[in-house]
């Protein structure tokens, strides 16, 4: 069968850099860091005392008080970003066939704060099993697509994807394929994460995964820098409306870009460490290019996973060189995690939005906090250090990788009719 073409017609973002897509993009383009001392709890006894938190967020500005109380912050973030994307898409919810509209959402952990708080309350109590009646629905990560479908009446495919930090890219990939195969006309997709709490910071500290640069949080996330010492935990949500091309054209929708293709692979190597030769990363980027039916030389920008970890950054860059060959020197490469921190399961969605905005605006967001070259990384590559760069952008690739060896790549291109 002939696959249907899929385009992006709506975007929503709630991030450590801004609580909507425009503020998020403006901060990205200016090279602003979202890292600061933690305000969610007293982090004085933790090895890492900072994170990239969502700022000035009041759920009651967006949600009914009674409903907000039934949601973990993870779901609250998803509802806000999802609503912005729906409004941005310009869909007339009274006219579309809601049987053909789905929600596919990604999260690596889900209702982490709810789970932590309920267990701590039980442990600190008298042993009586007093739990919030909404404990389970607040905790499960598939509640966000459920809540979004209930709000808008969308009765199409509805589920959550879980692949650690690749979760929302997997959601986007599934949404792409469901529409391609004619299973839906429109899918609201993306991801959310809210892991800035005692368990999140403590757990990642125990793994020695987080930066401990407490004296300078704003410079702690430094992908590709010789002195990088781990990632900075972030939180938030990103949402995209994916739509079958003819359906979008028929209603006169604004089209941000076409989703050209996607790839998925596994390292099959280690629970947390990347493959030393980058085999899974090479495979996933080649799969994405093949699925998009484009030559590697068509790619102008790669938004990398780039977490600011010693092994991950250099391995991904070497994989890019294997896939793109000499063309790697013509590509802009950057890690927006240098500004947002690592949003875990929401990373793919917010970074896809950064990629789409780069495509639309002709501006490559920078990799900030570069101070010292890493001798293990080719200095001739354009890693877009410290300042945004203007260039014509026609095709972008966005990579995300997750614990367990999950790899995803998505390719977006300018829509040319």
From TrEMBL:
N-terminal signal peptide: none
Biological processes, Gene Ontology terms: fatty acid biosynthetic process
Keyword S-adenosyl-L-methionine: no
Entry EC no(s): 2.3.1.179
Gene Ontology cellular component annotations, sorted alphabetically: cytosol
First-level EC class: transferase
Active site as annotated: 165
Pathway recorded for this protein: Lipid metabolism; fatty acid biosynthesis
PROSITE patterns: KS3_1, KS3_2
Catalysed reaction, written as an equation: a fatty acyl-[ACP] + malonyl-[ACP] + H(+) = a 3-oxoacyl-[ACP] + holo-[ACP] + CO2; (9Z)-hexadecenoyl-[ACP] + malonyl-[ACP] + H(+) = 3-oxo-(11Z)-octadecenoyl-[ACP] + holo-[ACP] + CO2
Matches recorded under SUPFAM superfamilies: Thiolase-like (SSF53901)
PANTHER family the record matches: 3-OXOACYL-[ACYL-CARRIER-PROTEIN] SYNTHASE, MITOCHONDRIAL (PTHR11712:SF336), POLYKETIDE SYNTHASE-RELATED (PTHR11712)
Protein family according to the UniProt entry: Belongs to the thiolase-like superfamily. Beta-ketoacyl-ACP synthases family.
Name listed for the protein in its UniProt record: 3-oxoacyl-[acyl-carrier-protein] synthase 2
Source organism of the structure: Marinoscillum furvescens DSM 4134
Lineage, uppermost ranks: Bacteria, Pseudomonadati, Bacteroidota, Cytophagia, Cytophagales
